[in-house]
Amino acid sequence: MTTHRISLAELERGTPFEQRHIGPDAGAQAKMLAQVGFGSLDELTAAAVPEVIKSAEALQLPPARSEAEVLAELRALADRNQVLPSMIGLGYYGTFTPPVILRNVLENPAWYTAYTPYQPEISQGRLEALLNFQTVVADLTGLDTAGSSLLDEATAAAEAMALSRRVGKVKEGVFLVDADCLPQTIAVIETRAEPTGVEVVVADLTDGIPDEIAERGVFGVLLQYPGASGAVRDPRPVIERAHELGAIVTVAADLLALTLLTSPGELGADIAVGSTQRFGVPMGFGGPHAGFMSVRAAHARSLPGRLVGVSVDADGDKAYRLALQTREQHIRREKATSNICTAQVLLAVMAGMYAVYHGPDGLAAIARRTHRYATVLAEGLRAGGVELVHDAFFDTLTARVPGKAADVVAAAREAGVNLRLTDADHVGIACDETTGRAQLAAVWSAFGVDGGDGSGIDELDAATADALPTELLRSDTYLTHPVFHQYRSETAMLRYLRRLADRDYALDRGMIPLGSCTMKLNATTEMEPVTWPEFGALHPFAPVEQAHGYLTLIRELEERLADVTGYDKVSLQPNAGSQGELSGLLAVRAYHRANGEPQRTVCLIPSSAHGTNAASAVMAGMKVVVVKTGEDGEVDAADLRAKIEQHGEQLAVLMVTYPSTHGVFEEHITEICAAVHDAGGQVYVDGANLNALVGLAEPGRFGGDVSHLNLHKTFCIPHGGGGPGVGPVAVREHLAPYLPNHPLQPAAGPATGVGPVSAAPWGSAGILPISWAYIRLMGAEGLRRATQAAVLGANYIAKRLEPHYQVLYTGPGGLVAHECVVDLRPLTKATGVTVDDVAKRLIDYGFHAPTMSFPVAGTLMIEPTESEDLAELDRFCEAMIAIRAEIDKVGSGEWAKDDNPLRNAPHTAATLSGSWDHPYTREEAVFPAGASADKYWPPVRRVDGAFGDRNLVCSCPPMESYES
C-alpha cells in the first residue's frame, strides 16, 4: 500500500482561510450547481455576469495568508504604534472598558453579528439595551427624548443644525457657532452647511451674541459645554438671548461632566448632542463611537436616525420596537430629514451598559476623580508660575506659555504624555478616567515646575478646592430607573447581558438572509485585533509618528480597495455608507464647480434605488429626478435618455446600484454610463451590492466615476445590531482632489478636499483591521470564489423556491445576482396572507426574515451570502416551502384567514400554556419543522407598531408610568 507524501510546506499552510469563510465545500457546490444547471462556478458566473463588465485581469492583491500569519502581520503593525497616555482631549478620552462588557458585548458574536432591529420580536435584547442608552442620554442631558445613536459628535451637531432649521420659527438667517466648540465639529458643520445654502458664523460668545449678528437673523446656535478650551461658563444668558431671537439652541455636552454639572435641558437648551465615547468605548484612533442627540418633547418626532420606543405585543405585553423614523429614507426619499442609515449600535450598547454597571453614583465618582486630577494638576502649574486661561473647568486646562507651547508639548512627549498644541502660546491638557499620578508628574516636569517627581500630590489635593462654578452644580437626580441600580456585581451584570443576548437572533444562531445587507461571516481572526490596545487606545489626534502601524494599515487598505473596485483613490473617512454617498456626491459637485459648471445640480436616481441615495443627494445640494424602472427590474433606458436630454446642461450625476436593487446584473450598464458621460455628467455606482462583483467586475472600469463601499457588508465589518459601519468613498483620478480632508490632520485628505464628513481624520479607524485582515486572508482568488459562491447561493435558492413562489426579476437564462426577490403579492391577493405574516412565521421556523417590501412592496429580498453552508440554505428553503403549504391551507379555507399560524406568528413559549382554541395544534405553532432541542423562542408576540407610534415612550420607565 502506498500513501501520498504531503510536503512540509503544504502541512505548514494548513487549511486555507477561504475554506473557513465560504460555507459550501466542493461537494456541496457541485450539488448546488447541478440544481442551477451548471458544471462549475466559472460556467455559472460566465452566464450570469454580462461580458461587457467583466474584469480583463485578476486583482493585483498579495497572495492569501493563513490566520496565524495574518495575526502575526497585524501584531507587527500594532507594534509600530506608540500608545502614550493622551491628555489631548477634544472629545476623545482614555476610558476603562469594564472587562465584563468588553468580553460579553464587544467580543461576543451574539451582540456584534446581530442586524438592525427591523424585526423587533427577535431583537428585544438589543432594543432594551438601546432603550437604556436613550435613558442615559435623556437623563444626563435633561431633555425629554433621545435617539438610539448617531455616528459621532460632529455629525450629530450637523444634524442638530439641520433640525434647528427644520423645526425653528426662523427659516433664514445664520447658524451661529461658539468659537469654543470642538474644531472638528465646526469643520464638519461647515462641510454640511455649504451645499444646502446655510451660512455658518463662528464667533466668541463669551459676552453674548453680538448685535451685528443678531440683526442678520439667527435660526440656530451651537454651544460647547464645557468648551474645547476646558472653560465651564454659564450658557443661560446666551440661551435666553437666542430664544428672544427665535433661534433653536443646541448644546454639545460631555456626558461625564453632566453627572456633576447642571444639564443642558435645565439650562434652557432645545437640543443636546455629543459623544458617549468616554463611557467605556476605546478611542480606536477616532472611532467607532456612538454619537447622541436628545431633544425637547416638541421635537421628538423630528429626530434624525433611529429611535427605540416602547409598545405592546399581540397579548398586550410590553415590547420594544424602532419608532417613527425606522426606515425614513426608504419612505420619504428626497424629503427625508436625514440620510442617517447605519448607526453605532454596538458602541451605544457598550456605553449604555457602562452606565448600567456603574450606576449614577459610580459615574459621578469617576467624574469627581477626573475633576480632582485636573484641579490638582492646575494648582501645581499655578504654584510653578504657569498661567491658566480659565479658573472654572471640569477636566481640561488651557495653559498660556508665550512662545513656548511647542517646547512644552515636546517635553511632555519625551516624558511619555501627549498634550495638545493649541497654538504657539497655549497648551491644552485633559484629564480622564485613566489619568494617574505619573501623568501629573510628567506634565509638571514638561512645564518645568516643582513637583515633577510626583511628590506633594496629596498635599496639593488637600489644599485645592474644586473648580466647578457653584451656580452650575447639578442638584437633580438622574438614572433612577432600577436597571441602573441592580447590576453592581459582575455576576449580576454577566447574567443581565446573557439574558438580553438570549432574547435576540444573530448570526451565531443561524442565517440572516437579508437582501442588500450581506450578513456574512465576521471571522474571529478578523475581529481579534480590534481590542488590542495598540489599535484601541490611540487618540485620533496623536502625533502621526506614533501611528506608523495604523497609517500603513490604512494606506494598504485604501490601495487594496482601489484595486478591487478599479478606482484610483479611496478615502476611509466616511463612517457609514450614507456618509460615503454624501462624500462622493460632494466630490462630484466640487468637480463640476471647478470646471466652471455650477449649474450642474440634477441627480438622476432610478426609482428602485436605496432611499439614502435621494436623501444624500439633497444634502449635497442637488435636485433629485427619478428615472423609471422597467418591468424586468432594469433602469428604463428610454426614460433615462429622455431625462438626460431634458436636463442637459444641468445634469450632474446618475446614481445607480449595481447589480440593481432588484438583484439582477443589468445588461446595458456600460451604455447607460456612456450616455451620462456624453451629456457631461458623472456616474455614481452605489456599492451596496459589491458582494456580487468582487473579483469579477470593477465599477471604476465599467463606467463608474465614484462609488461608496460598505465595509460592514462586503468586507466583513459586523453589523453590530445596526452599526458600526464604514462607508469609504472610491473615485477615479479626476475626482481625487475633492475627497474629504480634515483640519487637524493634513495627511487624511487632499488640501483641495471638500472638508471633513466625520469627526475623526480616518473615521472609524478602530475597525479597519477587520477588512484589512479579510482581504489579506482571502487573496485575489479567494475573494473571487467568495463572490461566485454568493451568486451560486442566490441562484440555488431562487431555483428551489421557483416552483412555490414567483421570483420577480431575473436576467438572461433566468439567473439572478447575489440576491433574489420573491413576490408574495399574488398570494396575498388570493389568501390574505401578507409579507409580514411570512416574515413573522419564519421566526417560528428559526430564521430572521429576509428584507421585506424593498425594493418592491409585498416582496421578500433574499441574500444568502457565501458564508452559509448547504445545510443552512436547505433548511431555509424547506421552511419557505413549508410556509407556502401553510398559505395554501389558508387559501383553501382549512385555516381561517384571521386565525392561522401565519397571522398569529410568532408564537412564544407562553402561548403553549393555558387554553388553546386555534384550528391548528400547539405543535404546528411552535415546532413547524419538527421538534428541536435548539429552538429559538421569541420573547414577545407580534409587536403593535402603530400603538408605539401613537403613544411615544422612549425611555426606561415601565408602561404603567404612562397610562394616564
TrEMBL record:
Residues 786-907 form the Glycine dehydrogenase C-terminal domain. One of its GO terms (biological process) is glycine decarboxylation via glycine cleavage system. The modification N6-(pyridoxal phosphate)lysine is found at residue 713. Its cofactor is pyridoxal 5'-phosphate. One of its GO terms (cellular component) is glycine cleavage complex. Signal peptide: none annotated. It catalyses: N(6)-[(R)-lipoyl]-L-lysyl-[glycine-cleavage complex H protein] + glycine + H(+) = N(6)-[(R)-S(8)-aminomethyldihydrolipoyl]-L-lysyl-[glycine-cleavage complex H protein] + CO2. Residues 19-447, 456-740 form the Glycine cleavage system P-protein N-terminal domain. Keywords: Oxidoreductase, Pyridoxal phosphate. SUPFAM superfamilies: PLP-dependent transferases. The keyword Cell membrane does not apply. Its EC number is 1.4.4.2. GO terms for molecular function: glycine binding; glycine dehydrogenase (decarboxylating) activity; pyridoxal phosphate binding. NCBIfam families: gcvP, PRK04366.1. The glycine cleavage system is composed of four proteins: P, T, L and H. Belongs to the GcvP family. The glycine cleavage system catalyzes the degradation of glycine. The P protein binds the alpha-amino group of glycine through its pyridoxal phosphate cofactor; CO(2) is released and the remaining methylamine moiety is then transferred to the lipoamide cofactor of the H protein. This is Glycine dehydrogenase (decarboxylating). It comes from Streptomyces botrytidirepellens.
